[in-house]
Specification:
The strands form four sheets. This protein has an eight-stranded parallel β-sheet with strand order 8-15-16-17-18-19-20-21. The chain has three domains: 110 residues, Urease, subunit C, domain 1 (Roll), CATH 2.30.40.10; 280 residues, TIM Barrel; 137 residues, Diaminopimelate Epimerase, Chain A, domain 1 (Roll). Helix 4 crosses helix 9, helix 11 packs parallel to helix 12 and helix 16 crosses helix 19. The chain is globular, with a radius of gyration of 28 Å. The two termini are 33 Å apart. It contains 21 helices and 24 strands. The longest helix is centred in the middle third of the chain and has 21 residues. By secondary structure, the chain is α/β, with parallel strands linked by helices.
Length: 588
């Protein structure tokens, strides 16, 4: 225990001093020097003896960092921090390990991340046969009428494709055979297509003669039979039928499932060093659920939530009640709206300026009509919300840049102050690249998408368009645009190390680099996952760097990702995740 010691003057000396003068006397230098120094309040947590990348240019890399409560109070040398260590300070000896600001997931789907761990995991399947086998096993243990769900299949990643495919995807015949009494719904890894068996199609009233709806396609054989593949908005009917079935469960069981979903998502995030998460789409009902968890102290990861899945009428009526700005050690913020103008390139849903290289009769799909997004932008300006629009194809990005520009001009607003975002911005016509910086629009991209999609991009766009328009990070940054990074989890794994590596290497799984000249430097990649993501959520003053006064959100890594050989970066392990000064995850 630290004790303060003070001198006590004899009473008669005090009286003499008072009698000598009623005016206060200035202390002499000698007297001042003899006074006890103020001892700083001890830190609650200290990490020392490592390499601490503060991501703050004014501080740079240091050896140690000190935390008091939920805030950082100092960052410096071991000697600098020593005076802050008290009898109850928790001290972590880093022994040379690497510390950085906590990773901020710039675009993901929080509750859906949890849900994918409650259903069939199809992401590692290397063939249609494996997927059919998983469904068969699930059907054997299911009651008739129970839905069987799966997520993560991607035909471009299979080692072999069966005969008789339509648009590169098998028909649902074998799903009908192995699960005749159960609706089966298998979501593509992109989230922009689904494979449904006949039972699932029937539950949604989809038959061979059902017309396509705007923004969606019911894929059919040349004879007109529905294959089971549903693109984009064509998924809505089966989604509604699934939701109806799920709603029939007792309320308490639904609550249990939702809480488990949130817990699973948090566990995955913390295990990967993610301390904040930009949730790219939650309904008002979902936000109510998250508010309940926060009030109970059951949100261990900070969420920046984008409102989605609501009609224009619902937004107009309810948006003001859901605007939540960041407060002291906050775990739930709501101040943005998510819209979606097109689909994904893999499912031929991205909206392109020219037709697809491998499907020349289409240039993609429009999901949310431009007029609807424009009305949403008006509501956002009225109620102080950010607009974040999913745009993947080059036509989609141009249309949304045009829309944003119209909104800024008509309201005489500075786009840089509004910080409206383009979610994904994967394929950009060269003429549109400088417009991001000019308008103050943020490019919310996902590094890992580039290397995941890279091997098959030329099949959709051809070599020339792939090189000129796809994942042009360097062109954007050189033009002055700001990029924030993420994974789009569960489309990809939430692993920020993998996305960081993809951002600096552009190394695909085939051993080739996708247009390597577009790679980021390691410093740029670090900033894209920390301070840039904080900026994209209007939170750069409270997170994103290890600066005294900011939130104590940090991650301890097994090695220094800024200096190890590039090929060694993927071997990096998360050893500790700290949120608000509390250790929320420890590696084994």
């Amino acid at each position: 225990m630290i004790k303060h010691t003070f001198s006590t003057l004899p009473i008669f000396i005090c009286i003499a001093l008072v009698a000598a003068s009623c005016d206060p006397q200035p202390a002499t230098p000698e007297a001042t020097a003899s006074l006890p120094r103020e001892i700083p309040e001890p830190a609650t947590l200290v990490l020392r003896g490592g390499k601490v990348a503060t991501a703050d240019e004014a501080i740079g890399e240091v050896e140690a960092v000190a935390v008091r409560g939920h805030e950082i109070v100092a960052a410096g040398s071991n000697r600098d921090i020593a005076s802050l260590i008290g009898p109850v300070t928790q001290v972590i000896e880093l022994e040379g390990r690497f510390v950085m600001p906590g990773f901020i997931e710039g675009h993901g789907h929080y509750l859906y991340l949890g849900k994918t761990q409650q259903i069939l995991d199809l992401g590692s399947a290397q063939s249609w046969d494996e997927i059919v086998h998983q469904v068969s096993e699930a059907a054997a243990g299911a009651k008739p009428g129970d839905w069987i769900q799966g997520f993560g299949w991607h035909q471009e990643k299979w080692i072999r494709v069966p005969e008789g495919v339509i648009d590169g995807v098998p028909r649902n015949d074998r799903l009908n055979q192995v699960a005749p009494d159960n609706p089966v719904l298998l979501t593509h890894a992109s989230g922009h297509a689904m494979m449904a068996n006949d039972a699932a199609l029937a539950s949604a009233g989809i038959g061979d003669l059902t017309d396509d709806m705007p923004g969606g396609t019911i894929v059919r054989t040349s004879g007109g039979k529905a294959t089971g593949l549903l693109r984009e908005t064509a998924q809505n009917g089966v989604k509604a039928a699934l939701a109806q079935w799920e709603s029939q469960r007792r309320a308490e069981l639904q609550e249990i499932a939702m809480r488990e979903r949130a817990e699973l998502a948090a566990r995955e995030a913390l295990r990967h060093g993610v301390t904040s998460f930009h949730d790219a789409g939650a309904s008002f009902d979902d936000i109510d659920f998250l508010k309940k968890l926060e009030s109970e102290g059951q949100l261990p990861v900070r969420l920046y939530v984008m409102v989605r899945y609501e009609s224009i009428e619902s937004l107009a009526a309810r948006l003001p009640d859901y605007r939540m700005l960041s407060e002291e050690n906050d775990f739930l913020t709501v101040r943005s709206i998510k819209k979606q103008v097109d689909g994904a390139l893999g499912s031929h849903g991205a909206w392109l300026l020219e037709p697809y290289f491998d499907l020349s009769d289409t240039a993609g799909l429009v999901l949310d009509p431009i007029e609807e997004i424009e009305r949403t932008a008006e509501l956002a300006l009225r109620y102080g919300f950010q607009v974040n629009t999913h745009a993947i194809g080059d036509r989609a990005n141009r249309e949304i840049l045009d829309l944003y520009q119209r909104a800024f001009v008509s309201h005489d607003m500075d786009g840089a102050e509004l910080r409206w975002r383009m979610e994904h911005a994967q394929h950009l016509d060269p003429a549109d690249v400088p417009r991001f910086a000019e308008l103050g629009v943020l490019a919310s991209m996902q590094g890992v998408h580039a290397i995941s999609d890279g091997p098959w991009l030329p099949s959709r766009l051809g070599d020339k368009r792939t090189t000129e328009t796809s994942y042009v990070w360097r062109n954007l940054m050189d033009s002055g645009a700001r990029i924030n990074n993420g994974t789009d989890v569960p489309v990809e794994s939430i692993d920020p190390i993998a996305s960081f590596h993809a951002s600096v290497s552009r190394m695909m799984n085939n051993g080739k680099r996708l247009t390597p000249g577009q790679a980021m430097s390691r410093q740029e990649a670090l900033e894209s996952y920390t301070i840039n993501n904080a900026y994209a959520a209007f939170e750069e003053e409270i997170k994103g760097t290890l600066t005294p006064g900011k939130l104590a959100d940090m991650v301890v890594l097994s090695q220094n990702i800024m200096t190890v050989p590039e090929e060694k970066i993927p071997e990096t392990q998360v050893e500790m995740t700290i949120v608000g000064g509390e250790i929320k995850y420890r590696g084994e």
